[in-house]
Amino acid sequence: MHLLYDKANFSVLALILIERGRLYLYDPLLTFDPRFRFLKVLHNEGVMEPVKSTIKVEHLLTYCAGFSYEFLLGSQTAAYYR
What we know:
With 82 residues, the protein is of the alpha+beta class. The protein has helices spanning 2-19, 57-61, and strands spanning 40-42, 48-50.
């Protein structure tokens, strides 16, 4: 349940920063952390490839960034979190 609150807190803080002009919806995440430059996508067939587009703040706020969670047991991505 605390993950839900973390997302809500992040959203509120991000909206405050956007309102103050310190953060923009279309800012790429790699602006804040260069490790986001090397993300990969895991396809249904088990093939991994580099992402084709940049994840932006907007994607985090709308839950469209494509991140998965370790706790989804049985999912293809679970093994990559170990």
